[in-house]
Amino acid sequence: MRRSKKTWKLMLLGMVSLLIMTFFLPRGLTRISQPESCGEGCSRYDIVVIGSEIQGVLLAKEAQNLGRSVLILDPREKPGGELIQGQMLFLDEPMNKERKSLVQGELKALFDGYNKGKIRDLHEFQAYYDKLIQDITLKSGITISGVEEDAAGKGHRMKSLTYKDRDRKTYTVEAGYWVENTDFNALTGRLKHKRRIPGMETIEKSHKPDYMGATYMLNFKNVDWKKLSKEVLKHYPLSNVRKVFGPNTYVDWNFAVGFSNVMAQYVPAEKLVRLRGLNMANQGDGKVIINALIMYNVDPSSDASVKEAMRKGEAEAPRILEYLRSRLPGFEQAELNGFPSYLYIRDFNRFETDYVLKYEDVMGGRMFWDNVSIGAYPVDLQGTVHIPHGIGFGVPDAYGIPLRSFELKEYDNVLVVGKNIGADIKAYGSSRIMANNALAAQTIGIILGYEADRKRLKELTPEDFKRIHQYLKRRHHIDVEHI
Questions:
Q1: CB 246 within 8 A of CB 261
Q2: Residue (of 220, 233, 314, 320) closest to 268 by Cα position
């Protein structure tokens, strides 16, 4: 039977497609996998991520790009978490002692745009985030009804999760791996066999669990940034600037920090609230966003606690505006420029992982055989009611963060990412920042994509990681072996 030219072309295209899939996708993966049915009203995915913080989104994106079936279930009403809903748009950048940025992977595009002023306001961050999630199945506003666990060897395994969607119908989902990606333990808080890592109470010498303060981000418009910079420059040298405005005060054309001497005189109207030194980002066109309003004793797992903190922040913002107008140059004509819809939660319950990163690891620059990130940042523990001004414990050089610090202890298939990292409280003071643990989450997503058909994550050996680190560098331009 003779074939037409069109038929030959279609056959040729099919052969080319097959070759591409054979040589460029991981072994056993030829397409983006779809969920399987596990019964009526039940779906099975390779990976289910709980929460829409950017770290878990990066993990999901990489795993899906490499053929894994992925679902994100978000208990919050809108996606984006700390970055979008909390509007934490003042980015902390990890640098080694030579002041070299350690940002790698997907977030490098975000930080490059941020540092160049191309990604500064909420709409620009939203556009960046939307590109990350555009091809991932994400359900917001879900309510978790329960979880089912099984024994797995000497440990445990999470089998399924039941939830209600916005349609009020009940669904069940099964997964090969589960990822805790919320700031309030939406998943891990329901598991039976976890153990909490001691938090700020260890610094306070207290027996009651305690946490760093949350932040209510402040938005202003009609700010004369040029005047702010000019007035601060009048007080140079830098030693005198800091004498007048407070320690660590610094201003350039893009960012300003410090002014703690000025802010210390502000008296809040609300209880359990403090205006600390300012971290300000110039968003252009007179718009400025500030990380400075600390809210103590916020429980992110309680809707009532979050709602009350939001009320306090919105009530305090107009008073802070009037204060800045009278005390800070360039703010004389400033106005409020909207309010965030959520908080920046720094700290909540974290549970033991296979390896809990230690303060000594951070300060000693330790590298691990199963590194999934290289981090850096001052050991910065923000304030609590008992330590209102916070406390620091030094500035480390680059250090490694191992995969084991994201594998929940006792569980074969539960990962924790973002601020859920397994680290003692001092190590957490540095490792908690987004760039450190976002790189780890992205790297874990890649490893899940390539390795899930070979071994379970907890079965990976130092020899396996020699190969893993090679393809991370070769195929993804991520180097987490060393600085």
A1: yes
A2: 320
